[in-house]
Amino acid sequence: MTALRRIFSEMTSRHGLGVALFVAGAVLFWVLVLVVLPQIAMLDYSFRHNLPRAELGGPRDAHTLANYRYFLFGNGAGFNTLDMGVLLKTLAAAVFVTLLDILICYPIAFILAHSASGVGLRLMVIGLIVPFWINEILRAFAFRVLFGATGVINGIGQALGFWSTPVDFVRADVALYAGLAYAYVLLMVFSIYNAVETLDRNQIEAARDMGASWWRVHWRVVLPIAKPGIASGATMVFMLTAGALAAPQILGGPSNLWFTQLIYQWFNDAGDWQRGSAYATILLVVCLVFVFLMMRVFRVSIAAIGR
After folding, report:
1. What is the CATH code for 81-306?
2. Which distant-in-sequence residues (6+ apart) come within 8 Å of 249 by Cβ?
């Protein structure tokens, strides 16, 4: 609260009371109306029965754990291994995509912050941003064309003699992981860039002058500064990957099922918003647990991530 008061006071002194009240009202509307209230409604739905409209508000319209019990045990006495397996597979894939983005984006962010300059820097930033002017769904279909049986990669691989028959990259989920990693690459790049940019280049030069190898420079000098950016980017990439729907629908193989697809099926195909809300709440809670784990692993606070 003290930090919020300080921000409001600074904004009032710089731009006037009217602007400060407008910004505060817009932020409050965004947080309460578009984030908090829908989540509360979804949580309430998840503890209710799926009843006909005529029975809403009646004696059967009571809170229950049946929807969460179904996720754990299904309709039988044993565990619901299908749905729990889909959740675990989704989480594992999201972790893999997050790690892949970290490996790809860290060197790009470092080059942007401490190697590129002038025209080269602007061209690199434009090269990163321009492809994202295309709609996400169209980019997903482009990846399906790229990795398809008659796609570009299979054509080049067969022409060069790397393999004789087309490789099914879609069924192997290669297209899905590549598409998801690419979809959120900007979030990771600019999160790490914002952190690494604050590092004084003289510290890197001093470490090099003292005989430190590049690996040691990055491990002892750059990474400690980049940790908040990596944690911030990893949090966003993981949560968006775990909650993705369009890419798994388009790029996923016939045997692949994403947890968000289960949620979609409960909401739209089965018309059971209560069970769909329970599944969505489970995914939200798991993602929040991951966020706090990332903060513990990188030993950063929310304030550090915000900075």
Report:
1. 1.10.3720.10
2. 258, 261
